[in-house]
Amino acid sequence: MKPQEWAHIRKVIAQAQKASMHCSIATVDKDLQPTITPIGTLFLHDTSARGFFFDSFSEALQANLSHHPKACIQAINSSSLFWLQSLFKGQFKDFPGIRLYAEIGDLRPANEAELALVSRRIRALKWTKGSKLIWNDFKNVRDFQVYGYKWV
Q1: Number of CB atoms found within 10 A of residue 52's CB
Q2: What residues contact residue 108 under an 8 Å CB cut-off, 6+ apart?
Q3: C-alpha distance from residue 57 to each of 1, 50, 53 (Å)
Q4: What is the percent of the chain where pLDDT is above 90?
Q5: C-alpha distances in Å from residue 138, one per residue of 4, 40, 57, 94
Q6: pLDDT tens, 1-12?
Q7: What digits encode the pLDDT tens for the residues 39-74?
Q8: Please, how many CA atoms are within 13 Å of residue 83, restricted to the half-sphere of its CB?
Q9: CA-CA distance, 115 to 80, in Å (whole number)?
Q10: Can you list the positions of beta strands (E) in the chain?
Q11: How far apart are CA 93 and CA 97, in angstroms?
Q12: What is the chain's Cα-based Rg?
């Protein structure tokens, strides 16, 4: 993947995550039945087609990845302003989303840099009761390698 392609992918995913606060990860179970898991802690590396996400509560995702490590990560820009502007102009100013085809690695302990990234992302909501319930116990991440993509 060319560096400019990866930069564009990162931009579209950042806009999508800003609007919806999550990406969706599709996996299949041992019977090849699909499951979609929302993940709000997905991060992409700056220069290579790789990333990681915190994996704490996603039991189905964990079970599915033990059988099939391949997944589809989808990020859609759900911003009302983005869609309204696109409707008025009759065209999108950029792709509204992307699907990344990836192979996801095993669970591993998060390092200090990764913990700092997630802390920065949740900082604005850290004071809420829900934040303390959801984001207080991040310890483990999964790395993933992107091997393909498709614009939405």
Answers
A1: 22
A2: 140, 141, 142, 143
A3: 32, 22, 12
A4: 64
A5: 32, 12, 10, 33
A6: 899 999 999 999
A7: 988 999 999 999 999 887 788 999 999 999 999 999
A8: 8
A9: 31
A10: 23-28, 34-39, 42-44, 50-54, 70-76, 97-109, 140-151
A11: 12
A12: 16
What the block records as the tokens of 22 is 């999550």
What is the residue type of 34?
P
Query: For tokens 């299949």, what's the residue?
Result: 28
What global pTM score does this model have?
Answer: 0.88
Q: Is 54 helix (H, G, I), strand (E, B) or coil?
A: strand
**DSSP percent split of the chain into helix, strand, coil, nearest 5:** 40, 35, 30
Residues 19 and 79 sit within 8 Å (Cβ to Cβ): yes
- State the Cα–Cα distance between residues 6 and 136, nearest whole angstrom: 31
In the block, residue with structure tokens 């019977």: 31
User: Which range, of 34-38, 113-117, 143-147, averages the lowest pLDDT?
Assistant: 113-117
| 61, 118 contact by CB (below 8 A) | no
Q: Please report where in the chains the tokens 């090849």 appear, as a residue.
A: 32
DSSP 49: S
**What do you get for the CA distance between the two ends of the chain, in Å?**
18
- Asked whether the beta carbons of 64 and 29 are under 8 A apart, the reply is yes
